Amino acid sequence: TMKKIITMSLAGALLLASGCANKPAGSNAGATGSLKDGTYTAAKPGMNADVEVEVKIANGKIDAVTVTGNEETPGIGGELVNAKGEVKLNGGESPITLIPKRIVEGQSIKVDSVTGATITSYAIMNAVGDAIEQAGGNKDDFKTEVKSSEKLEDMTSDVVVVGGGGAGLAAAIAAGADGATVTVIEKNGEVGGDTLVCGAIYNTPDEKLQKEVTMTDTVKTTVEKALSEKPVSDEHKALQAEVKKQWDKYKADGRTDLFDTKEWYALQTWINGDKVGNLDLVKKLCYDSYDAYEWIKDDLGMGFDDKISQGAGSLWQRTHTSKMKMGTGFISTYLDKIDAMDNVTIVTEATGKSLVKKDDKITGVVCADRNGNEFTVTANKGVVLSTGGFAANSKMVQEYNTSGKWDDLSKLMTTNRTSCSQGDGIVMAKEAGASLTDMEQIQLLYLGNTKDGQLTKYPPRDVNGTDQLIFINKNGERFVREDGRRDEICLGVLSQPDAIFYMLESGDGKGYVDIKDPEWRSADGFTFEYLEKNGYIVVADTLDEMAEKLGCDKATLQATVDAFNNCVDGKETDEFGRTLYSVKLENGPWVATPRQACVHHTMGGVTIDTDTRVLDESGKAIEGLYAAGEITGGIHGANRLGGNAVVDTVVFGKAAGEQVIADNK
């Protein structure tokens, strides 16, 4: 593992607090003799729930610290495990194991936190402080600041990847598979980026699985409508004609299974991005989606459910869902592969600052370690930028919020990790001469929880069971089509009382797991009891009881559900234009999940060609510079379909890694 990952350790640590600068590590003023030997327990709030620690005091010193319980997000605050249950350390070490080691070595509760996981880090430090006081000590005596004195040195490799999220790791593997040496630079303490906290859904046509889905007449109207549109370009006309030929054959064959092709996927993606996206890039995304799916599934071993659904905002039943919660399946799968590669090195807690340009070619990256020491990573063949978008940078969001679609976004939360998606890679690329595309195209998502806006703590059907849900406001009324576009749903949400709504589901439906079942878990692994106790869901045995708990009129809520059920039966046409149905909502238990619209994805970014080369203002490729993932613009247009971001990371990440090598042969 040490060959694969470079990070800041505590070796050679200095005590830097005033008056203590010359003391060796472990000589804390209050340590010796001030504590009563024994084992003590304490807990402090982490990111998700209390982090519980056990502290052993021996010979008046902190002898051992163990985190005995936590609900922290795997790969950020908690340990990332793969499908086999093995803890992955080659992408960085979590606070759960790293902070205890730093505390024991430094005999201090004021040690370096893990970048990107400060809340968990401080929860552990503060809990140990409580344990110290239980042992008769003064925790203030154990707050001598311990910081690493190490600095990262210059490095050289064939390919440098800046950003260790989904796109970056895919690029590293693809380049490394061709024999190149690869260095991945990641500013957080662990790789994963926002891919770790994604909804874990991946879109692609799938001939085998779509045969198991029956296509309804209302769903068919979506295809007919797209084919009846007047084309706006020759490229649009050609793609439309190809899909029409496929659609006509589907009907002539008398088929009843789900119609889907890569061309229909591309046409639907482009149209629902308001025809703003670069159609060639859209085709690249959609046409390569199945091959990329097979690559990560069959070649790398990623596990997916053996059925397709319609993910939130995906607009079609082509969504493949990871077997593991959130994005942990994608990241752990990549790390499993990298673990077996001697030519890929991951450097954590290091931030890319600027690109090195020599004779109009990008030859490396100037980086800074966590202490601000600069070092350069030279790239013999090329640099891949995969640092994400800028949805977590409120200033940058406001600067580019000029499309007219959204009002002031400054007060909205973000679903993204604040340590990621800051737009730093976009700034680096622009300074090196890159052009930008579609920067004003900013996406909101309606799945943010009402506490911190994160895409967490929701029942599984909320993200991939659109056919089994309705959305209601605080008055118990529907206000939008649940199977519609993300931007349309979010605009609807923002106009509701208090700008919140509830995702309402009943005890009916395919694949329903009884919420009383002790094995029931949210989409990110939390128990039903935890979600209800902490206000993430509202539960009732009857619809009348649900109305009481939500504070809305019983008759209004009943009328809302009755009207929806009439649409399911075909007795009424939905007033909001919904086309996807599978089940009537009739039986308890009823679950309502409060949600809000949050800044989620930025469709704009660095301009690339279909081979992931970064282009300058004249449209010419900047030699040695490539980009993949949310840092790029031109793919998703004015509205990204749900599930397409993960496809973007796999398709274009893999392509970037391969293209760097191809351009150097």
Task: Write up what this structure looks like.
Helix 6 packs across helix 7 and helix 16 (543-550) crosses helix 17 (554-568). The model is unreliable at 9-32 (pLDDT under 50). Strands 1, 7, 8, 12, 13, 14, 15, 23 and 24 form a nine-stranded mixed sheet that branches. Strands 17, 18, 19, 20 and 21 form a five-stranded antiparallel sheet that branches. Strands 3-4-5 form a three-stranded antiparallel sheet. Helices cover 29% and strands 21% of the residues. The chain starts with a strand and ends with a helix. It is an alpha+beta fold and 665 residues long.
Number of strands: 24
User: What's the alpha carbon Rg, rounded to whole Å?
Assistant: 26 Å
Structural class: alpha+beta
Output the number of helix runs: 18
Regions with pLDDT < 50 over 5+ consecutive residues? 9-32
Shape: globular
Overall mean confidence score, pLDDT? 92
In terms of topology, how is this protein built?
Elements: E1 5-6, E2 14-15, E3 38-45, E4 50-58, E5 61-69, H1 95-106, H2 118-134, E6 146-147, E7 155-162, H3 166-176, E8 182-185, E9 201-203, H4 207-210, H5 217-228, H6 234-252, H7 262-271, H8 279-287, H9 289-299, E10 304-309, E11 319-322, H10 328-339, E12 344-347, E13 350-358, E14 361-369, E15 374-385, H11 394-400, H12 424-431, E16 436-437, E17 442-449, H13 461-464, E18 470-472, H14 486-494, E19 500-505, H15 528-533, E20 538-540, H16 543-550, H17 554-568, E21 590-602, E22 605-606, E23 613-615, E24 621-627, H18 644-662
Parallel strand pairs: 1-12, 7-8, 7-15, 8-12, 15-24
Antiparallel strand pairs: 2-6, 3-4, 4-5, 9-11, 10-11, 13-14, 14-15, 16-22, 17-21, 18-19, 19-21, 20-21, 23-24
Helix pairs in contact: 1-2, 3-10, 3-18, 6-7, 7-8, 9-18, 16-17
